[in-house]
């Protein structure tokens, strides 16, 4: 097994799996307990004859491979995807169905990206099972029909869950919107002796972490950078520091109209503009206006 999850879906929801597979829930019926699904490979629809499944008879997508053995050809069926509906709930926006999703390795695809694949392991209660890449699995609190498993990496707890026989423990990691199942194990059975208790696991699969690759830096990268900062140029000292030598004679004098100070009735002094200089000009303007009126008449 390379993927496992429990999802709650409604009609139209799509779930992306491993190795380029995905499926869409087309419809679900609470009355019959059936689901109808459509499987895709690299976003291309796969033609499947029977796309229905229920809890007792889950939907399975299988591929058939012809294998030769001592000059005899035989066909072998491999289950790639299994989808089992386990619960239905009618809501205002439609039927919500809880499904268990299992995916197995497609033997026709080359996928060597596994640290462990469908193997068996055992872990004693109170001890740690060392996995790959610094992962460890601990078992505790074993009872007659259950045990607590805890997955850690470099001493940091990632997931802790109480499980019964035939339950599946899985841990997934998401990086840049891509989800990968890092660890899967199915609880097979419990073994107890006079001095220890052991959990037997099967279908144990582990894949490497999804880590972002460090950006490669060119050896000449620093030489190719353009320095946009230009050195400052020296400004020549052309300004005469003796600003007092500026010629102030360019300022024109403003002449004021002749005025005199007179006393008003309150005895205060006010400036009185001398209008005697305006009288000749006013007389000439009146004569000019009279001549124009005479000619126009």
How would you describe this structure to a colleague?
- It is a single chain.
- The protein contains 1 helix and 19 strands.
- The chain is elongated, with a radius of gyration of 47 Å.
- With 297 residues, it is mostly beta strands.
- About 21% of the residues have low confidence.
- Among the domains are: 101 residues, DU1608 C-terminal domain (Tick-borne Encephalitis virus Glycoprotein, domain 1, Sandwich), CATH 2.60.98.40; 91 residues, DU1608 C-terminal domain (Tick-borne Encephalitis virus Glycoprotein, domain 1), CATH 2.60.98.40.
Low-confidence stretches: 212-273
**SSE string, helices as H and strands as E:** EEEEEEEEEEEEEEEEEEEH
Q: Please state the average pLDDT score.
A: 79
Give the name of the CATH superfamily of the domain at 3-103.
Answer: DU1608 C-terminal domain
Q: Which CATH architecture of the domain at 3-103 is right? A: Sandwich
Stated plainly, the CATH topology of the domain at 3-103 is called Tick-borne Encephalitis virus Glycoprotein, domain 1
CATH class of the domain at 3-103 reads: Mainly Beta
Distance between the termini: 120 Å
Helix fraction, binned, reads under 10%
Tally of separate helices: 1
**Sheet/helix structural class:** mainly beta
Bulk shape: elongated
- Gyration radius, rounded: 47 Å
Question: Can you summarize the main beta sheet?
Answer: 5 strands, antiparallel
Strand percentage lies at over 45%
Query: Would you count the extended β strands for me?
Result: 19
């Amino acid at each position: 097994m390379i993927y496992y999850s429990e999802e709650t879906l409604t009609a139209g929801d799509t779930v992306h799996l491993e190795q380029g597979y995905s499926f869409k829930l087309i419809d679900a019926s609470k009355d019959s307990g059936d689901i109808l699904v459509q499987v895709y490979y690299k976003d291309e629809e796969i033609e499947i004859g029977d796309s229905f499944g229920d809890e007792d008879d889950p939907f399975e997508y299988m591929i058939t491979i012809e294998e030769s053995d001592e000059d005899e050809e035989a066909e072998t069926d491999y289950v790639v995807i299994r989808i089992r509906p386990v619960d239905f709930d009618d809501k205002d926006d439609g039927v919500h169905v809880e499904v268990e999703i299992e995916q197995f390795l497609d033997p026709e695809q080359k996928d060597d990206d596994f640290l462990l694949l469908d193997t068996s392991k055992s872990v004693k209660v109170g001890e740690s099972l060392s996995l790959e890449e610094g992962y460890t699995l601990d078992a505790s609190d074993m009872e007659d029909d259950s045990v607590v498993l805890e997955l850690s990496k470099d001493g940091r707890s990632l997931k802790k869950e109480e499980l019964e026989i035939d339950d599946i423990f899985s841990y997934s990691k998401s990086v840049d919107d891509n989800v990968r199942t890092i660890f899967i194990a199915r609880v097979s059975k419990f073994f107890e002796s006079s001095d220890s208790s052991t959990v037997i696991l099967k279908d144990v699969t582990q894949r490497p972490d999804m880590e972002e690759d460090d950006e490669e830096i060119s050896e000449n990268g620093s030489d190719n950078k353009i320095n946009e900062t230009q050195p400052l140029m020296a400004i020549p000292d052309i300004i005469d520091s003796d600003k007092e030598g500026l010629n102030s004679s360019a300022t024109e004098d403003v002449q004021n109209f002749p005025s005199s100070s007179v006393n008003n009735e309150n005895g205060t002094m006010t400036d009185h503009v001398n209008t005697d200089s305006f009288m000749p000009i006013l007389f000439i303007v009146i004569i000019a206006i009279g001549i124009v009126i005479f000619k126009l008449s």
